[in-house]
Amino acid sequence: MSHPNGHAAHLAKHDFIIPPGDDFTAAECDLLRKYGRWMDALVSGTLEPTTPSQEQFLLVARGGREPQTDFEKVWAKVAQWRALGGLVARTFVALRDARQHAATVEAEYLAARVEVLTAVHEQLAAVDAAFAEQLQGAN
Prior knowledge:
The structure is a single chain. With 139 residues, this protein is an all-alpha fold. The chain has one domain (4-103). It is 76% helix and 0% strand. It has four helices and no strands. It has helices at 4-11, 26-44, 52-61, 70-138. Helix 1 runs antiparallel to helix 2. The longest helix is centred in the last third of the chain and has 69 residues, at 70-138.
């Protein structure tokens, strides 16, 4: 079990990074600045809950029940923002992968096209050579 001093050390940190945008009220930003690092430590398992209210906070944070307290509600917003950030990151990775696939397909297409054009050019050169004398004589 984590030592209560660990809780005090996290409660003393007032440098939680507020997610950008206007999704958080001034009161929620203040709550996160004061307690965000501590809540994050509880949720991540760095700190273990020492009170029933901390256990309830974790239950809510893990999706076991709907948020009721200000702490639970603001943390639900943080979790939603983080999940959206992960979705955006996965979307960019998927886009990068799709672009790489498109580049590979285009390279294969261009290589196949060059191969066909090379064969056609060779055949045209042979036709030109075969008819060169006949065309010259006809003119």
